[in-house]
Specification:
Blueprint (H helix, E strand, L loop, with lengths): L11 E12 L2 E12 L3 E5 L6 H8 L7 E6 L2 E2 L4 H7 E4 L11 H11 L4 H14 L15 H13 L5 E5 L7 H16 L3 E6 L2 H7 L2 E6 L2 E7 H8 L2 E7 L5 H11 L8 E3 L4 E6 L2 H13 L4 E7 L3 H9 L26 H6 L7
Parallel strand pairs: 3-8, 3-9, 6-7, 7-8
Antiparallel strand pairs: 1-2, 1-4, 4-5, 9-10, 11-13, 11-14, 12-13
Bound molecules: adenosine-5'-triphosphate and magnesium ion (MG).
Length: about 350
C-alpha cells in the first residue's frame, strides 16, 4: 500500500482499510476503514462492545487482524511490528502499571525496556512525574494511588518513548470531573507538541473537547464519520436547559419560547422532574435569542446550562435505533457488551448506515 494523502492533503498517520477481527462468532471488527491525519485527534466513539479496544489492540500489534490492513506512521502492523511499536504510545483501558512498584520505578522500568540508559530513564521518569503532577507520590507504590493518579501514571508511561502516535483507550472513563479535565489538558498539550492521537470514548463531550474528527462505530462497523461539528449538526446540536426561579413558571416559560417562533428554535419542553425547560439549539445565536426573550418577558431564571447529546442520542439520530447495551454507562467490564447473538436490531442498523462526512 502506498502512502496516501487524506482529502485535505494531510498525511495519514494511521490508515486502516477493511479491518476484520472475529472472536468465535463475534465480529469484533467487521470491515473498519479509518484515517487519522498527522497531528490531529481522531475520536472513535462507540458503546460497550463496539470494537474500540479490539481496534486499538490491532493497531498496537498486540493482536493480528483476520483480514484487512493497517499502517501506522507508514509501518504495516503485520509486516513491520517492531518498527511500529517504537513510534506508538498506548494507554490501555485498564491500567497497566505494576502495583508493587512506585510510580517512579514503573516509569524507570519502562524507560529501560525502551533501551534508555539508566541515567536517561531516571531523568525521563522524573520529568514525566513532574509533568503529570505525581512528583509527591513518586515513591509510593502504585497500589496506593487513586484511580486518577493511576490514569496519569499510565499516560506518563505511554509518553516515555516520545511516541509520534498515541492511542488512548477510554482515557477518562470512571474519572471524576476534575481529574478528567486534567487528562484532557494533558492530551491537548501532547497534540500541541505534534502528537497524533487515536482516542476511543463513550462520551460525546470528550470527543467534542479533544477530537478534530469522529468515527462512530457499532458492532465492529463504522456507522458514521466526519468532522465533530458535522456530526453534531447531524444529531441536532445542544440542549439548552433553563430552570426558572419559581417552578410554577415552567409551563408558561416553555409556552413563551415555543410561541415566540425564534429563528431555528423548534420549541421547548418541560422536564418536570428536573424542574427545567429544555430547548434544542444549534447555535450560540439561538441560545442568546432564547435567553433574551425570557428576559424581556420578565421570567426570573435560577439556572442556565447546555448539554451535548449523549452517545445514546447520537446513535438514535444516526441509526434511528437506541444502543441496546447501555451506551454512556461504561461498565468497566473487560469483555464489554459481549452479548452478541447476531439477531435483534443489529441487522437493520446496517441498512440505516449514514455517511455524515460531506
Ligand atoms: N479476547 C476476547 N475473546 C472473545 N471475545 C472478545 C475478546 N475481546 C473482545 N471480544 C468481543 O469483541 C467485541 C468487541 O469488544 P471490544 O473490547 O473491542 O469492545 P469495546 O468497544 O472496547 O467495548 P468497551 O466500551 O466495553 O470497552 C465484544 O463483543 C467483545 O465481547
Ligand atoms: Mg474497550
Amino acid at each position: 500500500m502506498t502512502k496516501r494523502l487524506t482529502d485535505d492533503g494531510g498525511h495519514s498517520a494511521v490508515e486502516v482499510r477493511g479491518l476484520v477481527k472475529h472472536y468465535g462468532a463475534t465480529k469484533a471488527l467487521d470491515g473498519v476503514d479509518l484515517d487519522v491525519r498527522q497531528g490531529t485527534v481522531l475520536g472513535v466513539l462507540g458503546p460497550n462492545g463496539a470494537g474500540k479496544t479490539t481496534l486499538v489492540r490491532v493497531l498496537s500489534t498486540l493482536i493480528a487482524p483476520d483480514a484487512g490492513s493497517a499502517r501506522v506512521a507508514g509501518y504495516d502492523v503485520l509486516r513491520q511490528p517492531r518498527q511500529l511499536r517504537r513510534v506508538i504510545g498506548l494507554t490501555g483501558q485498564y491500567a497497566s502499571v505494576d502495583e508493587k512498584l512506585s510510580g517512579r520505578e514503573n516509569l524507570y522500568m519502562i524507560g529501560r525496556l525502551l533501551d534508555l540508559s539508566s541515567k536517561d530513564a531516571k531523568a525521563r521518569a522524573d520529568e514525566l512525574l513532574e509533568r503529570f503532577s505525581l512528583t509527591e507520590a513518586a515513591k509510593r507504590p502504585a497500589q496506593e494511588y487513586s484511580g486518577g493518579m493511576r490514569r496519569r501514571l499510565d499516560l506518563a508511561a505511554s509518553m516515555i518513548g516520545n511516541p509520534s502516535v498515541l492511542y488512548l483507550d477510554e482515557p477518562t472513563t470512571g474519572l471524576d470531573p476534575r481529574t478528567r479535565n486534567e487528562v484532557w489538558a494533558e492530551v491537548q498539550r501532547m497534540v500541541a507538541e505534534g502528537a497524533t492521537v487515536l482516542l476511543t470514548t463513550q462520551y460525546m463531550e470528550e470527543a467534542e473537547q479533544l477530537a478534530n474528527e469522529l468515527t462512530v462505530i457499532d458492532r465492529g462497523r463504522v456507522i458514521a464519520n466526519g468532522k465533530v461539528a458535522e456530526l453534531k449538526a447531524k444529531v441536532g446540536g445542544r440542549t439548552l436547559v433553563i430552570r426558572p426561579t419559581d417552578p410554577a413558571a415552567l409551563t408558561a416559560m416553555a409556552a413563551a419560547i415555543t410561541e415566540a417562533g425564534l429563528d431555528g428554535v423548534a420549541g421547548a419542553t418541560v422536564d418536570a422532574k428536573d424542574e427545567a425547560v429544555n430547548v434544542p439549539i444549534l447555535s450560540d445565536e439561538q441560545l442568546t435569542a432564547v435567553v433574551g426573550l425570557l428576559g424581556t418577558r420578565g421570567f426570573s431564571i435560577a439556572h442556565i446550562g447546555t448539554h451535548l447529546p449523549s452517545l445514546d442520542e447520537v446513535f438514535l439520530a444516526i441509526t434511528g435505533k437506541k444502543t441496546d447495551d447501555g451506551a454512556g454507562q461504561p461498565s468497566g467490564d473487560g469483555n464489554g457488551g459481549g452479548d452478541d447473538n447476531g439477531s435483534d436490531t443489529r441487522s437493520t442498523r446496517v441498512d440505516n448506515e449514514v455517511e455524515v462526512a460531506a
